[in-house]
Amino acid sequence: MGTSVQVKPLCGVYNENPLAYLVSVDGFNFLVDCGWNDHFDASLLEPLSRVAPTVDAVLLSHSDTLHLGALPYAMKKLGLSAPVFATEPVYRLGLLTMYDHYLSRKQVSEFDLFTLDDIDSAFQNITRLTYSQNYHISGKGEGIVIAPHVAGHLLGGTVWKITKDGEDVIYAVDFNHRKERHLNGTVLESFVRPAVLITDAYNALNNQPSRRQRDQEFLDAIMKTLRADGNVLLPVDTAGRVLELILILEQFWEQHKLAYPIFFLTYVSSSTIDYVKSFLEWMSDSIAKSFEHTRDNAFLLRHVKLLINKSDLESVPDGPKVVLASMGSLEAGFSHDIFVEWVSDTKNLILFSERGQFGTLARMLQADPPPKAVKVTMSKRVPLVGEELAAYEEEQNRIKKEEALKASLIKEEESKASLRTELPVNDQMVLDANNTHSSSNAIGQRSEAFRDVLIDGFLPPSTSVAPMFPFYDCSSEWDDFGEVINPDDYVTKDVNIDQMLMPVDGELAGKLDEGSVSLILDTTPSKVVSTELTVQVKCSLIYMDFEGRSDGRSIKSILAHVAPLKLVLVHGSAEATEHLKQHCLQHVCPHVYAPQIEETIDVTSDLCAYKVQLSEKLMSNVLFKKLGEYEIAWVDAEVGKTQNGMLSLLPLSSPAPPHKTVLVGDIKMADFKQFLASKGVQVEFAGGALRCGEYVTLRKVGDASQKGGSAAIQQIILEGPLTEEYYKIREYLYSQFYAP
């Protein structure tokens, strides 16, 4: 029986909702992604709430809310307490994304689903891994290895590989095979024939133009608006795809020496770019090489100005400008307010670089044709004054008194409990009940009269016969030098505001933007005032695909190349999911699944795998031969059992049967050419073949009937007359392999 694998979607199948899936590998439960939408709809998390306490580990693939937005809430209220794994950029940029969402929501509503402390607490549990780093799970998951690989969608975005007993489970959603300005393409194609592949159908029905054509159309639309004295608003995410847009604009402005101002406006814009500057090793090869040669950091921005407050934008002189503002959904944040101000001007342009989430204002505006008018809610936080302020202060005082009373009661109970445990049994004030039974009856009435006089805040033992005062023995430890002290009691600790706002482990070195800090620390009593408006949509609306995902044609090609044994499709519209499912059944593999929410599917491998122990008697007679980085050997053995019942390979009790020669290994024709040249053979490439001497030809061909690219069965054909030269070259060829 192979490794047991079950997949249970918790959110994000047959629709475009956030992603969250439970993947069980031999009983070890992985929660792969923990997303939420921009509405923060708690009903979406009901399936997660039913399994959260059983999760053993959490794997995060990307830094946006669709992949990790529910993590703070799940850890605070749903009982999720498992360790979390992600890459360094997903950890840091995901934290900033959650900060930005919280601050944006807090300014327009009484947002109480989670706090900044909850965000910090959730992200403290994250273990950061580098690409291709194997992490061995211990304890319940002994034998399971996880490793992140390049996804190509967002900075630090991950394709997760989970390995157990030689079988791979690949989780690859939102991947991008295209190489972009700041990211390399995915390495998904390097995996061949995994046992299970979990991927999405989000883009299965979409096809994309070339990158050059798309970028040119993007810049042309912006320049046309600016030259017509209009403003351009790009609703963007906090720290994801916006990085690619910033580089496009920065490079174009630099090349053409343009003077139109560009602004990147989020609550954490400065922190975002500061962190991104330190992630060059996670970016494309071109950015890394440029930094190595010229020490020029691609995100040392000269034309894009970073803003953290809308008032800073309002202080900019009138004139055409480009503003990249969060949130991409237009549900909250600076983009929402700017949209309301600019939407009624025909000269302006709202340029969407990604599809809006379902049910959001952005998605509504991307309809064809777009609406002529939309209803919006304008909300802002204002200080309390007059009677409202007085009522608020009175309520706060009442709450403080209740908390103080509750704290005093708790302290009283603790002191009573400590006294019961610390009072020695031989205390003279504690009398033996057997000896005092008659006397207690005699003086019971007299003692009851005075019992409450001396015991306020103190409960004497039940055997006491008279009022008592509490006594606490505060003993100290002593050594040869005197009383033992704790040095920490005498250390003056400086309160650092920046450390208060960052996780305690200090890994997020650096500061939040000053505006965000002041907003967090603002304790002025306030309330949210909302106004319903209907605005006329007169500006231009354009959607261009800068999502950074492979299109439908590329997805189908990649899946055919990877050729998984079993395929699970998630996250995509019902139409896209069914379309990709039918295609894969015909061209990829016969086992394709598209489960519903909370439907558990068993995708355990059909292969039979057994664990066997190699006995010492067998290994003492095995001859190893080095092949590259490995040592290999042919083994003839029979299966037996050890004393503890484990299967073991033992030496044959009879002579080993003969077997055909098996060539193990692979060679590169270019390397073999150099080897032959070192042996004095005249050799050259001609027409895709290697000509050796005058008459002998070597050609490497693959079996076209096999899927899997580099893992396909390959043959080396040796052609030529049977001469001494032919046999000599054949001998050289065989020497490159291990032939047991």
UniProtKB/TrEMBL annotation:
Keywords: mRNA processing, Nucleus, RNA-binding. GO terms for biological process: mRNA 3'-end processing by stem-loop binding and cleavage. Belongs to the metallo-beta-lactamase superfamily. RNA-metabolizing metallo-beta-lactamase-like family. CPSF2/YSH1 subfamily. GO terms for molecular function: RNA binding. It is found in: Nucleus. Residues 242-365 form the Beta-Casp domain. CDD domains: CPSF2-like_MBL-fold. InterPro entries: Beta_Casp, CPSF2, Cpsf2_C, CPSF2_MBL, Metallo-B-lactamas, RibonucZ/Hydroxyglut_hydro, RMMBL. One of its GO terms (cellular component) is mRNA cleavage and polyadenylation specificity factor complex. It comes from the Eukaryota. The gene is LOC113725016. Its main location: nucleus. The lineage of its organism: Eukaryota, Viridiplantae, Streptophyta, Embryophyta, Tracheophyta. Pfam families: Beta-Casp, CPSF100_C, Lactamase_B_6, RMMBL. Residues 17-222 form the Metallo-beta-lactamase domain. This is Cleavage and polyadenylation specificity factor subunit 2.
